[in-house]
Amino acid sequence: MGCSDFLEYKDQDKIIPRELKHFDELVYGEIIKKTSKSEMQTLDFMTDDITSVVLPIEGSSNRRDSRSEFFGYYTWAKNNQLDMEQRERNDNNWAFFYNKILRCNILENDISQFEEDHDKVRTRLLGELTFMRALAYYYLVNIYGEPYENKEQAKKALGVPINTAISIEKKTYTRAKLQEVYDLIEKNLLQAIDLLKAGNQANSIFRPNVNVAHLFLSRIYLQQKRWEDAKQMASTLITESGASIETLENMSKYISNKITLYNKSNKSILFSWGERGNTPLQLSTNDAGHWEVSQNLREQYVNKDDAKDIRGTAFFHAYKPYYPKKYDPSNRSCYDWCYRIEEAYLNRAEACIELGGAENIEQAMRDINSIRRCRIEGNYEKTAGNTEEARNIMREEKRMEFCFEDCRWFDIRRWKIEITHQFHDLNTPLAADTYILTAGSPNYILSLPLDVQDKNFEIENFERVETLVSK
Q1: I need a surface site. Which of 55, 166, 182, 388 has the fewest CB within 10 A?
Q2: Is the peptide bond before 321 cis (omega within 30 degrees of 0)?
Q3: CA 229, CA 222: separation in Å to the nearest integer?
Q4: How do 428-437 and 289-293 pair as beta strands?
Q5: How far apart are the first and last CA of the chain?
Q6: In terms of Cα–Cα distance, which of 377, 369, 315, 312 is closest to 346?
Q7: Nearest partner of 447 among 434, 465, 433, judged by Cα
Q8: What gap in Å lies between CA 195 and CA 193, rounded to an integer?
């Protein structure tokens, strides 16, 4: 009968995807672009790039304290999800990335049902989903899993749960071994590269591509201390990507025209996604108790007589609290998480340094100076007499170039860097509590989100330690 479905309910606000073009839009909107505006916002507070500041009582008429929310992270507290007033603030990174993984699984299953792929759209979409799943696991295991030491340790150490479900299931998940998670990330990235090469080319920094997959592979090879693989992968990216280190001339134009580093004309950007919202440093500008970019970091860019490092001006606002301006939520031409070709040069430099030998050290310094030449007016060149000097220069350069992106906390974990933070109470600004994150600390691993601890009694939660050493 022609009217047999007349009374059937139809939701006018929803479209059920039945064509590849529908899935193309769905993958972009719900997987690639989708953001909470707060993912990984806490990580910078655990680094040496942020400091706690209290203005003298006579120096401010506003006695508010905006440091409460991130206090547990800044002090590497035993329970990092308690704020300054000991109120619970659930960590949402876990839910955000596992939701992304589940959606990737579901859409991958649905898109795989298409038999025909004349324009190779299906192939590209499967590559994009595979990459985004690898990206999610990369962040999860480096936030909540044990740091990678070596393959034998990783076979016993704990990573994060692996979810292969293609629908919402009532299931209690436990942690996979660390090596299993790294093997899964590598498998997904290699598969993504094959699919993205074979699929139709989106030619956009706003969709996952072969270049960013190569970059993430170089990252996980570094973390696994697979130095030769990391060197080769970074070299492949540098040679084949078509991307280039942003020039000194363009950086200077960005400064004079008040353009952020993250912009569509920047040819160093490989992939861009997500939104950060306002930085907590920016929001606390006028509060008596607030966060600032640390003096230790700002001093790295201090100009010498024969060299002017323009990154200090390009990366930070010139007034307190000197908050970063690589991205600007109010004036966005790119999204707020960007991955740049400069990292490939520093990843290759690190791999060469750890491989050792005169030829590798020379290559590492060439890579480092390739970036410095595009950041420093005057004498930019650095030299290293031995492996330790080269390592220190590379690590310093990595911190300076990629501050307030997504590298520093993960580098602190894998390089076992010890950090000291001081925290002044609003009412006693001359007295400070001292907190120390010791090298190799168990507090390199964040506590499971409070809602996960409340619902899942089988998953292991690592024991953290007190970090307060003096009051």
Answers
A1: 388
A2: yes
A3: 8
A4: unpaired
A5: 82
A6: 369
A7: 465
A8: 6
Lowest-confidence pick of 107-111, 155-159, 285-289, 354-358: 285-289
Reported residue count of the chain is: 471
Q: Which two tokens stand for residue 229?
A: 């693989």
pTM: 0.94
Q: Residue 266: what pLDDT?
A: 96
The Cα–Cα gap between 136 and 97 comes to 5
Q: Which of 9-13, 15-19, 365-369 has the lowest mean pLDDT?
A: 9-13
Is it the case that residue 60 has pLDDT exceeding 70? no
What are the pLDDT digits (tens) for 166-207? 987 778 899 999 999 999 999 999 999 999 999 999 999 999
In the block, which residue shows the tokens 């049902």?
113
**What are the tens digits of pLDDT across the range 353-364?**
999 999 999 999
Give residue 199's identity as a one-letter amino acid code: G
Pull the structure tokens for residue 424: 């002044």
What is the spatial distance between Cα 111 and Cα 23, in angstroms, rounded to a whole number?
Answer: 7
Residue whose structure tokens are 């206090």: 71
Q: What is the CA radius of gyration of the chain?
A: 23
Q: Measured in whole angstroms, how far is the alpha carbon of residue 355 from the centre of its chain?
A: 26
Q: What angle do CA 446, 156, 136 make, to 5 degrees?
A: 45
CB 133 within 8 A of CB 87: no
